[in-house]
């Protein structure tokens, strides 16, 4: 049993204690001499600078900055740091997750570089939540909306330092890093560099941070003991900092940021806290100063070509489907054309996965091995060899991808790290980043497919590469027909999967989870369901169809982003228990369908199924979750005007203003 919490004695909460002056009051100091020296002002500065700029110098001196070093160029280190660490790294106050626990060290390393060069570094923070921590809780209602909110706050912080010459964005995880990309691309008139926060190490013995999130489901089904659950839950994070060890949304976002040219070469997925990780921060600071000196901004770097390269790398890695929300949003922030479903489809037709990293197989290596095997430059080198890469795209290193890749194969960095992987883990780097021709022979297929059908007329998405091969036909097609098990809350669905329900989910069922899209729950992530299905012996024989989204570590026959969502009138909201649902996913041809083909009593022709769905009323319990915060309801309404999930859940300000104006005028005509 855990030790009892010792509440302080009630006397400590008494009014007398609060109002007793004691020795503390007697020690109050009422004035001080202020910093010594004087500001390095000139006649021109005093006549032309704003009062705000001048007062900023006073504030700098007040914080202890040497007035003699006051006039150097200002650079903002903006990070998602969370928690409070003691000088030796032990926790004083915990962060929400390992991904923001150590990033303050990256900020410090970069700031020292700016200072040594004569610059004036600033640091600001906008911390981020943990999707793993909020799985299955009401905290998930704020997860995706947080991205937009944080990007707004970050941009406001950037603009609120008027004399900044550039931005160094330090972030690691699922929403903080996409928010940082939105922020810097939304201020692309400045030079900016992203510093990915890296990854945590896998435990020497034990489960990774993805599998360990299933201990509740496995224990409930008798798959593990109470002692094993406690042991695995304790030791899953091999080191205290960095994103999870799998290529989920956090790691995929790091990879995508590098592929876009937003980071220095070979920056994504470095092991947190290690010298090579800190060196990336120092290199990034030097690159930012070089961009500033050359007059280059992010508008020169983040282009249609860099967005395309990011999509290629996403496909090659088998990356998180959440990036289908984030990459279009980054493009929108940068003022570029946002990729469409057809664009994604075409890229995935061109590029089959050739990276073997958790949660994908066949082996499923931890992300640190992907870094050691060569990371993003190695992947992009293969893509260039295939003739697919747009190599003239620039990077924040001030050179193009072609220039980087010309030097990469013979580089000392590549040679040393790949050798380290062989020596330390006895792993061939070419078994992690597999040469594409070899990957094809091993049966690796393309990453995503976009099924349509009478239950998802606007489309849906499935990470087709992650379907268990044992339930896929020899022709590469996954086919499943089964009875619908309809749920309107994730809590009820996971209870049925764990067996804590009058009608437990069984092998052969098709779980249909509705009302969990943006309008219903902020488009919650349903990893506790997908992970439970992965690690239960019969889970591969269950399909999941939902208007919610999935974690990047999800695997299996999980179809999400169903559109229209149930609360927007989508037919998925009219499915009833026992309906026969047919799912077909061609992992090679990259097309699929999700259709109602019958009721519990009889089969239906396509026309009969369409007519039945049109005539039915929505599920009687379908409603906005009563615990959905007003903040997230507002986000859902605004992003829907901006095009919804297939446009990246963005705020299209012009459309929002036009919609509000039209609504106001309509109300005025009605006299309300």
Question: Overview of this structure, please?
Answer:
- Keywords: Lyase.
- This is Dihydroxy-acid dehydratase.
- Its EC number is 4.2.1.9.
- It is an enzyme of class 4 (lyase).
- With 672 residues, the chain is α/β, with parallel strands linked by helices.
- The protein folds into three domains: 67-202 and 238-437, Response regulator (Rossmann fold), CATH 3.40.50; 448-615, Glucose Oxidase, domain 1, CATH 3.50.30; 630-671, no CATH class.
- It has 26 helices and 13 strands.
- It has helices at residues 15-19, 22-26, 43-48, 51-62, 103-116, 131-134, 143-159, 176-185, 215-220, 226-235, 249-259, 275-294, 304-317, 323-333, 341-350, 367-372, 375-385, 401-407, 412-425, 436-441, 490-498, 518-521, 527-535, 606-615, 630-641, 653-670, and strands at 74-79, 84-85, 91-93, 120-125, 164-171, 192-196, 459-462, 477-487, 510-513, 543-546, 558-563, 580-586, 591-598.
- The strands form three sheets. Strands 7-11-10-9-8-12-13 form a seven-stranded mixed sheet. A four-stranded parallel sheet has the order 4-1-5-6, sandwiched between helices.
- β12 and β13 form a beta hairpin.
- α5 (103-116) crosses α12 (275-294) and α13 (304-317) crosses α15.
- The protein is globular and about 90 Å long.
- The chain starts with 14 loop residues before the first helix and ends with a helix.
- 52% of the residues are buried.
- The model has no long low-confidence stretch (mean pLDDT 94).
Condensed summary:
The chain is α/β, with parallel strands linked by helices.
């Amino acid at each position: 049993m855990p030790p009892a919490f010792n509440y302080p004695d009630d006397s400590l909460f008494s009014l007398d204690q609060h109002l007793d002056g004691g020795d503390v009051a007697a020690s109050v100091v009422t004035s001080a001499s202020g910093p010594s020296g004087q500001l390095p002002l000139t006649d021109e500065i005093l006549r032309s600078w704003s009062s705000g700029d001048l007062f900023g110098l006073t504030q700098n001196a007040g914080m202890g900055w040497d007035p003699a070093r006051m006039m150097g160029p200002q650079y903002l280190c903006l990070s998602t740091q969370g928690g409070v660490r003691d000088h030796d790294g032990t926790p004083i106050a915990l962060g929400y997750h390992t991904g923001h626990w150590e990033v303050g060290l990256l900020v410090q390393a970069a700031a020292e570089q700016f200072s040594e060069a004569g610059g004036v570094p600033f640091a600001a923070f906008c911390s981020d939540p943990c999707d793993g921590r909020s799985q299955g809780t009401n905290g998930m209602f704020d997860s995706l909306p947080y991205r937009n909110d944080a990007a707004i706050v970050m941009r406001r912080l950037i603009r609120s330092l008027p004399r900044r010459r550039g931005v160094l964005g330090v972030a690691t995880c699922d929403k903080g890093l996409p928010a940082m990309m939105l922020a810097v691309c939304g201020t692309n008139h400045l030079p900016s560099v992203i510093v990915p926060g890296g990854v945590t190490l896998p435990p020497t013995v034990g489960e990774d941070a993805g599998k360990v999130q299933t201990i509740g489901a496995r224990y409930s089904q008798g798959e593990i003991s109470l002692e094993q659950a406690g042991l695995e839950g304790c030791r899953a994070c091999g080191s205290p900092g960095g994103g999870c060890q799998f290529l989920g949304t956090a790691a995929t976002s790091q990879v995508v940021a590098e592929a876009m040219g937003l980071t220095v070469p070979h920056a994504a997925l470095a092991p947190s806290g290690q010298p090579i990780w800190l060196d990336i921060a120092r290199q990034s600071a030097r690159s930012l100063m070089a961009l500033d000196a050359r007059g280059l901004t992010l508008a020169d770097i983040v282009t249609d070509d860099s967005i395309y390269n990011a999509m290629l790398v996403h496909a090659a890695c088998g990356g998180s489907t959440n990036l289908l929300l984030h990459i279009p949003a980054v493009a929108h922030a940068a003022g570029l054309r946002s990729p469409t479903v057809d664009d994604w489809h075409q890229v995935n037709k061109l590029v089959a996965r050739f990276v073997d990293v958790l949660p994908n197989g066949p082996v499923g290596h931890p992300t640190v091995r992907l870094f050691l095997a060569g990371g993003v430059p190695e992947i992009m080198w293969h893509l260039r060899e295939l003739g697919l890469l747009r190599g003239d795209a620039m990077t924040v290193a001030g050179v193009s991808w072609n220039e980087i890749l010309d030097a990469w194969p013979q580089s000392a960095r590549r040679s040393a790290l790949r050798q380290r992987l062989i020596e330390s883990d006895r792993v061939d780097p070419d078994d992690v980043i597999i040469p594409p021709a070899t990957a094809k022979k091993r049966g690796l297929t393309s990453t995503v497919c976009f099924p349509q059908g009478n239950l998802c007329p606007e489309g849906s998405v499935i990470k087709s590469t992650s379907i268990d091969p044992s339930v896929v036909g020899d022709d590469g097609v996954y086919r499943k027909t089964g009875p619908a098990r309809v749920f309107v809350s994730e809590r009820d669905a996971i209870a049925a999967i764990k067996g804590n329900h009058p009608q437990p989910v069984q092998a052969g069922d098709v779980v249909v989870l509705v009302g969990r899209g943006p309008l219903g729950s902020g488009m919650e992530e349903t990893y506790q369901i997908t992970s439970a299905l992965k690690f239960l012996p019969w889970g591969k024989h269950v399909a999941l169809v939902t208007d919610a989204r999935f974690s990047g570590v999800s695997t299996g026959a999980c179809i999400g982003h169903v559109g229209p969502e149930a609360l927007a009138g989508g037919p998925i909201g009219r499915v009833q228990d026992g309906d026969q649902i047919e799912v077909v996913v061609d992992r090679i041809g990259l097309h699929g369908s999700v259709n109602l083909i019958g009721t519990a009593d009889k089969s239906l022709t396509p026309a009969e199924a369409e007519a039945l769905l049109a005539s039915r009323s929505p599920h009687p319990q379908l409603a906005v979750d009563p615990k959905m915060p007003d903040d997230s309801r507002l986000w859902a309404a605004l992003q829907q005007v901006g095009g919804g999930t297939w446009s990246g859940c963005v705020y299209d300000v012009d459309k929002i203003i036009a919609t509000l104006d039209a609504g106001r005028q309509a109300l005025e005509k009605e006299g309300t």
